[in-house]
Design goal:
globular
Length: 146
């Protein structure tokens, strides 16, 4: 049952990306071009998503002790900003600005054969593989204290 709801959620998410225009890299790049051909429509898409999601999460957490398909809610516990997070966010933002894609819309646009997707998705997958298999060079709390 968990996999069925995961599949349905993914399909609904992908449909939302297509309908909203987030699978169109030109639309995304126009949204990011604040001093050129700026298109604010994606801000309304994001605002609408937040307006629907925030009350939904509030109701869910108020009425349930556990999620429907798991033993516990898995919420982030860290509140600090570490260099890996800042670096990853910067790389993500630069890639989004250059390509007009982020992972969700890129995978959604892949079957549509959107321009650049056939280059972006393999590069993204290689980058994800490299990130997972690259040794962590940041010092841990024990190493930093010595």
């Amino acid at each position: 049952m968990q996999q069925i709801f995961a599949l349905l959620s993914g399909l609904l998410f992908g449909l939302g990306l297509i309908v909203s225009g987030m699978a169109d890299p030109a639309k995304v790049l126009n949204f990011l071009d604040l001093f050129g051909r700026w298109d604010p429509s994606l801000a309304f898409v994001m605002g609408g998503a937040i307006a629907v999601t925030a009350p939904g999460f509030a109701l869910l957490f108020a009425n349930r002790q556990t999620p429907y398909f798991d033993q516990k809610f898995r919420l982030p516990t860290r509140s600090d900003l570490e260099p890996k997070l800042i670096t990853g966010a910067a790389i993500f933002g630069i890639g989004w600005g250059l390509g007009g894609f982020c992972p969700g819309p890129a995978l959604t646009a892949l079957p549509l054969a959107a321009s650049g997707t056939l280059i972006f998705v393999p590069a993204m997958l290689i980058g994800m593989w490299a990130a997972r298999h690259t040794p962590d060079l940041t010092p841990t709390a024990k190493e930093g204290a010595s």
